[in-house]
Amino acid sequence: MKKNMGVVGAVMVGLLAGCASVKTADFDEIKLYTLKNKAGTTVKVTNYGATVTSIVTADRDGNLADIALGYNDVSGYMNAVDKPYFGSVVGRYGNRIAKGKFSIDGQEYTLATNNGENHLHGGVIGFDKVVWDAEIVGKNAVKFSYLAKDGEEGYPGNLQIAVTYTLTEESELKIDYLATTDKKTPVNLTNHTYFNLKGEGEGTILDHELMINAKATTPVDSGLIPTGEITPVNGTPFDFTSAKAIGRDISKKDRQLEYGLGYDHNFVLDKGGKDGQMTLAATVYEPTSGRFMEVFTEEPGIQFYCGNFLAGNLKGKAGKTYVHRGGFCLETQHYPDSPNQPAFPSTILAPGEEYKTGTIYRFGVK
Ligand code: GLA
């Protein structure tokens, strides 16, 4: 196979036992692709859930570590305890839809509910639990495609989706999303990678210094459904407009932090009038390794989730325990529950339109 990239093969192996929730379990179809640049950054992606399984980058002394949480084999992803969605593309609607209900043009739709009374990350068998078609589309670029059928998890319309992962020589992991539909439907795709810039399984992320380019959030109720308000972060633990340690204010008394059990909130990005254009959304710096990460997106929001549901019962790829808050996600997206929130940017895709959006995670050191 090619030096820089190629199908490493069906490296992933797994057991069929306990895979009742998995729609397709044809292991021959499951492949792992390795993207590698000259700087030594290596990203692995699989067509099971269009998932990023590994991101290896150098620290400031050139030592390599895998900074993405995940599993060594596909059975881990299929049987995931507590459903962490490690590295996957989530959809058709990433994040929550209240009570799994919404209406389009007067027609009510009912989705699968899988998060209490609410719908989360596409339902019981979301895009993270299906096998996508895969195609190598360039140097260090792999395109995953999936046709979500009309009625799947309750959504209207056949939705044809393509997600392309590209690793550049500048150590950017570019994620390009494309979708078309034959009936009006909500669409909100994101990637659910958990990062720990010290390395997966190397303790908590509370010392990571995070900046989010957002002056407001969309506060939630106790079920993590937005109230519809857009609230300034100024003077609250949600102010990440200047970089600060994730753990600095996480234990402060705050109703929103209580609801989220920590940070698990959508931040309203400052797009500077550049709606739909690629702008800087967040930066993260980890002082001991020197690793630095930037997130750019065309999306209007970002869900910052700091691994509050990691309970210390999962072991990582190197056999180390994923502790509580042992990884964070920066899920670029539209706001949660937008189909029920007329004041939020629309997530409805109509026939003839193209859902087209991109996000870049850039890795470096300082
Ligand atoms: C998202 C949600 C969280 C949680 C994780 C997966 O980020 O907002 O509440 O469900 O996914 O554990």
Q: How would you describe the overall organization of this protein?
A:
The chain has 366 residues and is mostly beta strands. The protein folds into two domains: 3-191, Beta-galactosidase, Chain A, domain 5 (Distorted Sandwich), CATH 2.70.98; 209-365, Beta-galactosidase, Chain A, domain 5 (Distorted Sandwich), CATH 2.70.98.10. It is built from two helices and 29 strands. It has helices spanning 74-78, 255-260, and strands at 5-9, 32-36, 42-46, 51-58, 64-66, 89-90, 96-97, 101-104, 107-110, 119-120, 133-138, 141-148, 159-167, 172-181, 185-186, 190-191, 209-212, 214-217, 231-232, 244-245, 264-269, 279-285, 291-297, 301-305, 314-315, 321-322, 329-333, 348-349, 355-365. The strands form eight sheets. The protein has a nine-stranded antiparallel β-sheet, with no helix packed on it. Strands 1-2-3-4-5 form a five-stranded antiparallel β-sheet, with no helix packed on it. Strands 19-18-21-24-27 form a five-stranded antiparallel β-sheet, with no helix packed on it. Strand 4 and strand 5 form a beta hairpin. It is globular, with a radius of gyration of 19 Å. The two termini are 34 Å apart. Bound molecules: alpha-D-galactopyranose. The site of alpha-D-galactopyranose has 10 residues, from strand 24 and strand 27. Residues 84-85, 120, 224, 264, 303, 305, 309, 329, 331 line the site of alpha-D-galactopyranose.
